[in-house]
Amino acid sequence: xxxxxxxxxxxxxxxxxxxxxxxxxxxxxxxxxxxxxxxxxxxxxxxxxxxxxxxxxxxxxxxxxxxxxxxxxxxxxxxxxxxxxxxxxxxxxxxxxxxxxxxxxxxxxxxxxxx
Length: 115
Known about the structure:
Blueprint: E1 2-7, E2 13-18, H1 22-43, H2 50-75, H3 80-114
Antiparallel strand pairs: 1-2
Helix pairs in contact: 2-3
């Protein structure tokens, strides 16, 4: 079904549904326009803003610390200090280091392409 807009002498617009092969083509055209607009938004996005990248990596690192210090002791048995030390040693350090390296490489690439 396609949507057809018809105007009348009074300036009103009547919208009716009619079966049409062109409706599929118009749907593809609309999808292409939406994709084009998304690409424009990505060019303006925070992926290329060094401050936003640093803020995002910092938030992720803070999330790792909160997990190790708050959430893990709630779900694991044992003394608080031992659970925090074990969780940070096994999970937190590795994940935090990986996030830090990804952020450093990301900021390095941004600095390289800004020249």
